[in-house]
Amino acid sequence: MTNEQLMDALRTVDDPELHRDLVTLGMVKTARIEGGAAAITVEPVTPGRPLKDTIRSDIEKAVRAKADQLGEPAPTVAVEFTANVRTPQDRAKQASPLPDVKHIIAIGAGKGGVGKSTVAVNLAIGLARAGASVGLLDGDIYGPSLPTMLGLDDQTPHSEGDMIRPFESCGIKSMTIGKLVEPDKPLIWRGPMAHGAFQQLATQTKWGELDYLIVDLPPGTGDVPLTLAQTLPLTGAVIVCTPQKVAQDDAVRAAHMFQQLNVDVLGVVENMSYFVGDDGKEYDIFGRGGAEQMAQRLGLPFLGGIPINMALRENCDAGEPLKNFDDPKLRTSIETVVGRLAAQVSMASMSVGMTQPTMSITE
Ligand code: ADP
Description:
The chain is α/β, with parallel strands linked by helices. It folds into 2 domains: 3-81, 2-Layer Sandwich (GMP Synthetase, Chain A, domain 3), CATH 3.30.300; 88-349, P-loop containing nucleotide triphosphate hydrolases (Rossmann fold). The chain has 11 helices and 14 strands. The chain has helices at 3-10, 52-70, 88-93, 116-129, 146-149, 191-203, 223-231, 245-260, 290-298, 310-317, 328-354; strands at residues 28-34, 37-42, 76-81, 101-109, 134-138, 158-160, 163-165, 167-169, 172-176, 210-216, 236-241, 265-276, 282-283, 302-308. The strands form 3 sheets. Strands 4, 5, 8, 9, 10, 11, 12, 13 and 14 form a 9-stranded mixed β-sheet that branches. A hairpin with a 2-residue loop joins strand 8 (167-169) and strand 9 (172-176). Helix 1 (3-10) packs across helix 2 and helix 4 (116-129) packs across helix 11 (328-354). The longest helix has 27 residues, at 328-354. The site of adenosine-5'-diphosphate has 18 residues, from helix 4, strand 12, strand 14 and helix 10.
């Protein structure tokens, strides 16, 4: 068995919690075969107590199966685990494929239709209005909505070598698969394709220098967040949620997914928090405060609420999100979220800066 064949065997072993193979997850630090003995070092990526015994016996089984397949006697297998878990701080230190981007922030939601893309667009524009240079990546490769929301209809994609130039509108740069494929075609991606499509979109866009790259993720807990967490050093994630209990339950799952991937959750935004009627009264249609209470329960920062607002919907459908900042109440609600997010980002980066180097001890 060669080292490469050993790696192939490890590709068939899934992490029992993340349900992805150890190689894709970047958990295999070393894998060597010498004189009938295979030595493998695994670096866990989930905090807490990873299921080491399961991983070890799955590796042994996979190596034996590979040897059978090759018609060779099975090598002895020694599996070691590094004592340290790969943290966001470690990821921040590793070479980023986007070295000119200071902060990458994922916007996720448990459910579709809660306004994740709307919040992503308004946060990106809000940060740009505050003076930052901002890019927005439509990671929702299944249902891209940025072409409509950012009014990109008249823009055509341009490439420079093997890179794509981002679109520019509303004071931000953006990239979306929706402008690179036929508009009405359904986008069906299976796991590895979704991985590849997203990775290409993220890393082959010529973003240039950015303070913030906001990534609008697909709803739920699928392949794209995992690819994102493995490909790019994320500063953290924001969860968008509506106040209802059913939306909260899914948002909790999304928050746990990020925590499992070792991605900091920077906070929760409550969208469609309440409705302001013509009489100026505020109506709590979906039960205002539900997402805030959920954030408190999970010990996550609450970044603020955005009301149900007809103009917001109209401006997004018309590709004119800058107009959201004309309505003082709406503007204040968006700017509050932007300010609190920026503060969380600063705190997250400070804690990275102050982290002591971790020792790597094999046990
Ligand atoms: P998601 O990305 O979660 O699927 P979208 O951002 O596409 O959701 O929003 C779904 C629809 O709801 C869009 O038509 C959007 O304009 C509308 N919408 C989102 N948030 C609000 C809001 N606060 N007030 C009014 N309409 C909203």
